Amino acid sequence: MNRSAEEYLSWLAVERGRARNTLQSYRRDLVGYEAALATRGTTPEEAGPDDVAGYLADLRPGRSQASVARALSVVRGFHRFMVDEGMAVADPTVGTEAGRLPQRLPKALSEEQVARLLDGVTGTDPLAVRDRALLELLYGTGGRVSEIVGLDLPDLTLLSSPPGASTPGSSDANPTPAVGLVRLYGKGSKERLVPLGRYAAAALDRWLAVRKPPRRTEAVFLNGRGGRLTRQGAYDVLRRRAVGTGIPVSPHVLRHSCATHMLARGADIRVVQELLGHASITTTQLYTKVTAEHLRVAYEAAHPRAGDHSVTG
């Protein structure tokens, strides 16, 4: 990339605190943008509206609308940075639109499906105990998979379960409530404290009791070799545990399910926004549409004057 793009990425890292994965994604988009401009015989500093429009037009055949919108967002931020820093005299992205994105409702499992998935992870061997704790935290905290596998032991210093608390898989169907908070680091390295419910805290306590890394490491969740469990490793765990259940699931589906179930049970939307670490409440509002649909179906199925089964007076 040219010097302007490198300075933009450095600014994002230092001034805005963008995460490493975000910066890598931005870099890929900027490399592609510069290559597209090169074929048109221009540079980012000299690009005009037609060059930006041509770049987006070349992207659309092989990209989703969301991907094109993200690429435009990266390019727009880059050009605004160059104008602010005096590297360019005008922003060629002004007035450019990627197209209206369809509003997609997040997928969510039912409460019964989540319970069936989690209760199906049984056993006393370390991997089974780890897997149960991993799934309980994904659903119990609503955390992103990268946040959960990124947990270190010091992030659990506020965790405290009462002596003799029951653990998942025991004969006690109602574990003793556990009091605790866990520190998660979200997008842009933003920190938030999330409460642990009794099932998640009990499962985590049980895992920590059998966690024996072959070497010193602060990672909470370990792979079979004793290193930190990766994001892909967590996906593999969930996929393996879902085999035979017929439940379409991923770590992000558990996150969606956490938010949807809380809202359906009356949680304030701003509390859910804080819990999930959404920068904008607009993102959280998508879940209210899911909940509203559940309410509509239940209403039409039960109310005597809601549908075809209406009675006459």
Question: What can you tell me about this protein's structure?
Answer:
Helices cover 52% and strands 3% of the residues. With 313 residues, it is mainly alpha-helical. The chain has a two-stranded antiparallel sheet with strand order 1-2.
Topology:
Elements: H1 3-14, H2 20-39, H3 49-59, H4 65-84, H5 111-119, H6 126-141, H7 145-149, E1 181-185, E2 191-195, H8 198-210, H9 231-242, H10 251-264, H11 269-276, H12 281-302
Antiparallel strand pairs: 1-2
Structural class: mainly alpha
Shape: globular
Q: Note the run of SSEs as H and E.
A: HHHHHHHEEHHHHH
Helix content: 40-55%
CATH superfamily of the domain at 115-246: Intergrase catalytic core
Oligomer: single chain
Instruction: Give the biggest beta sheet.
Output: 2 strands, antiparallel
Runs in which pLDDT lies below 50 for 5 or more consecutive residues are: 160-173
Task: Provide keyphrases for this structure.
about 325 residues; mainly alpha; hpI Integrase, Chain A; two-stranded antiparallel sheet; 12 helices; 2 strands; about 50% helix; about 5% strand; globular
Provide a short characterization of the protein structure.
The protein is mainly alpha-helical. It has helices at residues 3-14, 20-39, 49-59, 65-84, 111-119, 126-141, 145-149, 198-210, 231-242, 251-264, 269-276, 281-302; strands spanning 181-185, 191-195.
